[in-house]
């Protein structure tokens, strides 16, 4: 991937992170032009091994899950439990702008890679920390993943379930990705300020806060008695819900201009002109009869397949979409027309599909694709660039400090 002309060209990031949230932040920064050097333990990032849960191969030559979160980076392996390994990281920090991590605070304190130590020895560094629950409070030291801190404690999973049913199994990485790109935005803001002051900053994003932010409307509404989960038959607006079609597909409506669109909906979509002027024709009255109206509309939508409803809704100018499966997204022409998805050929010759990060630049677009690093692929070159002699590099390898 060419970095030329991209906004973060010339910025160096040292990534000391595993799993998803902080690494996807690093991937965004790399896509925006930064040089990102990923530090892995000698056994490798855990993300190299967990992909089998979602049917991904986990071979060195084909590891899509690791690839998606780590493309465009350089990769080195350093034992940060050793004094020599930490010293090497501090040498790297003298050449860098950003230290990116999601390592738990106690581990950073133990290794001497916490904010206080880095600020003292490298005050120019922007210390970007992806947290689970935040700096304070009773949960601050709890282990966190998006399943727990984002979906569960953040109220997302319970709010997405159909009232009266069991929770759905969370979507892997969803909260991680939102937290990661949020941290990337904070880093860019800090880099902007650093140009003026020359000083570093500590910028944090937590998985829990990301969920609270995303859930802001229903959380605030709960103060006034609004409760979730809800049933799809009792939404706040009877036409802001899903309806099953004759072919088994579901259609989602976004009927936010209720009175303006209701006439066309009755005439052009469901062919029920008799409903115009009824108790369902204004939002103020319709919400008093939500469930009975939704059930009535269920009886209408089940009569025709999705394609026919799509044609009618399109002509009427009413926002709608089919509830897509991941396979539908994989084959969606809209994705491929806009480079939201990427085809990538692995070193073993197999072709896979990866996502593109969601910020695009018109005048200086990204060019090509740079795969994720193999285990320890750039260790030796990065050490040489630091001025470490060939003899010392060999000794560090022999002593299992680097790999």
From TrEMBL:
Source domain of life: Bacteria
GO molecular function, one term: catalytic activity
InterPro entries hit by this protein: CoA-transferase_III, CoA-Trfase_fam_III, CoA-Trfase_III_dom3_sf, CoA-Trfase_III_dom_1_sf
Any matching Pfam family: CoA_transf_3
Name the record gives this protein: Carnitine dehydratase
């Amino acid at each position: 991937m060419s970095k030329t002309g991209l906004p973060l060209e010339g910025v160096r990031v040292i990534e000391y992170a595993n799993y998803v949230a902080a690494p996807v932040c690093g991937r965004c920064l790399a896509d925006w032009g930064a040089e990102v050097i990923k530090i892995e333990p000698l056994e490798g990032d855990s993300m190299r091994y967990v992909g089998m849960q979602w049917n991904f191969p986990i071979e060195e030559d084909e590891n899509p899950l690791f690839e998606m979160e780590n493309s465009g980076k350089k990769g080195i392996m350093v034992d940060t439990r050793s004094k020599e390994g930490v010293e090497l990281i501090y040498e790297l920090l003298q050449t860098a702008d950003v230290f990116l991590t999601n390592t738990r605070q106690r581990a950073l304190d133990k290794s001497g890679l916490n904010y206080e130590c880095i600020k003292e020895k490298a005050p120019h560094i922007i210390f970007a920390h992806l947290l689970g629950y935040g700096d304070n409070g009773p949960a601050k030291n709890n282990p966190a993943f998006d399943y727990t801190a984002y979906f569960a404690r953040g109220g997302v999973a319970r709010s997405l379930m159909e009232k009266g049913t069991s929770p759905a199994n969370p979507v892997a990485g969803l909260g991680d990705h939102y937290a990661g790109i949020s941290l990337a935005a904070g880093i860019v803001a800090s880099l902007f300020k650093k140009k003026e002051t020359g000083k570093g900053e500590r910028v944090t994003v937590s998985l829990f806060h990301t969920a609270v932010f995303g859930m802001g409307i229903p959380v605030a509404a709960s103060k006034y008695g609004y409760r979730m989960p809800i049933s799809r038959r009792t939404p706040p607006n009877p036409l802001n819900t899903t309806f099953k079609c004759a072919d088994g597909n579901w259609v989602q409506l976004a009927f936010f201009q209720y009175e303006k669109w209701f006439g066309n909906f009755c005439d052009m979509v469901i062919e029920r002109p008799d409903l115009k002027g009824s108790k369902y024709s204004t939002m103020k009255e319709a919400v008093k009869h939500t469930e009975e109206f939704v059930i009535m509309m269920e009886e209408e939508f089940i009569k025709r397949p999705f394609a026919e409803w799509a044609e009618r809704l399109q002509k009427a100018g009413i926002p709608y979409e089919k509830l897509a499966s991941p396979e539908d997204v994989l084959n969606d022409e809209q994705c491929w027309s806009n480079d939201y998805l990427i085809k990538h050929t692995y070193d073993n010759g197999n072709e896979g599909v990866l996502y593109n990060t969601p910020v695009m630049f018109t005048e200086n677009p990204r060019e090509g694709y740079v795969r994720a690093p193999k285990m320890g692929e750039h260790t030796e070159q990065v050490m040489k660039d630091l001025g470490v002699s060939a003899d010392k590099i060999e000794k560090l390898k022999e002593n299992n400090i680097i790999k």
